[in-house]
Write a structure and sequence with these properties.
single chain, 285 residues, mainly beta, four-stranded antiparallel sheet
Length: 285
Amino acid sequence: MLYFTQEGNVIKANAHLQGYFRAREVVIKNSVITIDYNGDGKSMYTFTLEKDAEGKLKLKSYDFRYNGAANQMAYAIMAKKSEAFSFANLSFKAGNTIFSFTSNGGTEIINWPGDPGPYYKLTNIGFKTNNDKFLGVTVPNWNGVNVPAMLLEKDDVLFVAKEYDGEVPQPVCNLILPGVSFKSQSTKLATSEEAILSSVAQTLRGSPSCKVVVTGYCSSTLADRQLSWRRVESVIQYLTEKQNIDGSRFIFKYGQPGNDCNVVDLKNAAGGQSGGGVIPSFPSQ
């Protein structure tokens, strides 16, 4: 994906591939745009422009030359940024694959079946994920598809997706998470337990639509319930404040039966389980 920006008298091509980004000054001569992607003459893009009957610029021809070999580009189109449509909060379908774009606590998410993850926008025309699994752009048409579409590249496979207004399957969450332990009567997380929660946070970032039940145990006395509450709070507080995980993803449970009083468990929430982000009142009786 290439988009162009002007900086003073200089035109730059901002080129995005999976795992790569280059911003290169373009050479324009006789209606031909040339871009040296790596600055070494080995990866050369060439686009020839012409005007249509209405005097508007259009793409006449294109080529990508790699290590001297031409004709390395199968297809290309040129469009105005204003012709790209917003994909936020929309769903798309490519073949039998349905995916959607949502927002979770300010984080933009692509909900790809079995592989959801956060993304960042590339101006108003596309997106990219930090792990470089996905690269996408919206276009007004594409190679025989005469309606607006999204081009999405995943693992070097190109998907041409159209907007979908049917029911979107909910992502399946099958997280296996470790619990943490506290020293007797303590509510402070040891360094070793913080390391465990750091790994939990990494897992949660990779499954941004999944919620977690955080459970503390023991309820025989008021002191037990209060200690259990504070320990659950400590775990959630660490994940939200230190690891920047959205608090609405945690379901707070304390004073539960069935486990060691000094343990706080983290478990995958059942589908549709409610209560995320709600902190129960501190026990007083």
